[in-house]
Structure formats: structure tokens, C-alpha cells
Amino acid sequence: MGANDLYQACIPLRVSVETRAGPLIVPLWFEWDGASFWCASHRSAAVLAALAAESRCAFDLSTNEMPYRGVRGRGRASCHPELGGAVLERLIDRYLPDRTHSLARWLLSRRDAEVAIRITPDWQTSWDYSARMAGLGERAPAGSVS
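^ that's the sequence the OP posted. Answer follows.
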């Protein structure tokens, strides 16, 4: 999986925002349109309040398994309440097996309260440690018994 493949991966985008209490990191489902990340969150979410006060944010899209790969950067976010339901539906279709799953039904029951978040990167970089970590991805997880 190369850095470009990460944009298609069904892993969360970690978004960092600044709040009055300090930094906040929020994992969000996303889709990439070639220029921006699109996410959705409930209108009462702390991430939306933070973005209303400050549109600058940072993001990390990376694997948790070895060998590590990722994309990180900084950008500007804009919030779009009118697109929240439509973006939520696309994210459910992307991340869940179908809309009959209990999580999908619960999220869709709150569809009208969702706000779309568009994050447009100003700067980003990627890394891929496949070569230096060759063979480490096949290790048994810590604590497993063979």
C-alpha cells in the first residue's frame, strides 16, 4: 500500500484542532475527492465548535500495522451543514457493509443533525517505511500465542 492508496483505505483520518482547553485529536471517517478530505460529524461535536473558532487544523492518515505508512499535513477546514446528510450517507457506504447494520441505522437516524467538514490541505507529506521495516508486518501481535 503506497501513500496514494491511503486515500482509498477505510481507516480513520485523525484531525487535530485547537480548543480553549488545548489540542484535540478526533478520528473521523473520510473520503478524498482528489483535493480535499470530506468528513461528517454531529452538530454538537467539539470538533465543529473548534473549527468554527479556528479553521486551521492538522491531519494524519496512517496505518497502525507494520510497516508504517502515512500522510500528514495541515490545512483549512470549512463546515457545511447543508451537505452533512449526503456526506454521512457516502461515508456509511464506504466504511460499513450496508445501511442495515445497527451502526448505520443509528447514524442515519441522526442524519439531519450531521455537518459535513471539508479539509483542504495547505501542506502535506507522506512516508512509507516498507523498505526499512521489511518482514516486520508478518509478526504475530504482542500477547498472541503461537
